[in-house]
Amino acid sequence: QQPVQSPQAVILREGEDAVINCSSSKALYSVHWYRQKHGEAPVFLMILLKGGEQKGHDKISASFNEKKQQSSLYLTASQLSYSGTYFCGTGRNTDKLIFGTGTRLQVFP
Amino acid sequence: DAGITQSPRHKVTETGTPVTLRCHQTENHRYMYWYRQDPGHGLRLIHYSYGVKDTDKGEVSDGYSVSRSKTEDFLLTLESATSSQTSVYFCAISEGLTGANVLTFGAGSRLTVL
User: Fold this and answer.
1) Choosing among A86, A90, A97, A101, which should be mutated to test the B contact, i.e. which has the most B CBs within 10 A?
2) What are the backbone angles phi and psi of residue B67, rounded to the nearest 5°?
3) Is A13 on the interface with B (CB under 8 A)?
4) How many other CB atoms are there within 10 angstroms of residue B107's CB atom?
5) Domain that holds residue B99
6) Which domain holds residue A89?
7) Mind listing the pLDDT tens digit for each residue in B70-108?
8) Using 50, 70 and 90 to split pLDDT, how confident is the model at A15?
9) Nearest-CA neighbor of B72 among B19, B34, B29, B21?
10) How many domains does chain A have?
11) What is the CATH number of the domain that holds B49?
């Protein structure tokens, strides 16, 4: 069962912040975040493991609430390069990831 | 660079014909995956493999079969292609010892079934 992402789309001006949410109806072992630019393959951003800490690099960070089976991706002071579709991937075990339907982010000057 | 190659990159075929997509990796990773991507559905797992001759179904496996006779190659076969299988297909490998590690995706194969 696919995790649910919200919102489905976000439009921002450069410098604005955004939050993308990912929720699952089942207990999770891990949550991954990927970004896909138009016409390209998805690229890994970060992974959060059960019992792990909030991760982040540069101005993109994420959290994982194990009890609620939810994860959020935080984009701070967005840049044009942040535009793309963001996918969360959830793992209930160590074998495979199930991805959400994606959140399209557009950043304008 | 995980060294993943998908072939063909583009294919147009007719309903009812068999189609095989190939994923080749150069670094002996244990886990390999086939996803399809469609508007409104995101990435959906078709099949995956956790070793030579070890495969399992994903979310949308009906109409697809896979084979892995060598560590480096993971084949996805549509026995009799249908228009609903028109999609972009991505192969991925897990760079760790389990499937819970970072996935690296191939460039994708765009399949059109007329």
Assistant:
1) A97
2) -150, 145
3) no
4) 14
5) 4-113
6) 4-108
7) 999 999 999 999 999 999 999 999 877 655 678 999 999
8) very high
9) B29
10) 1
11) 2.60.40.10
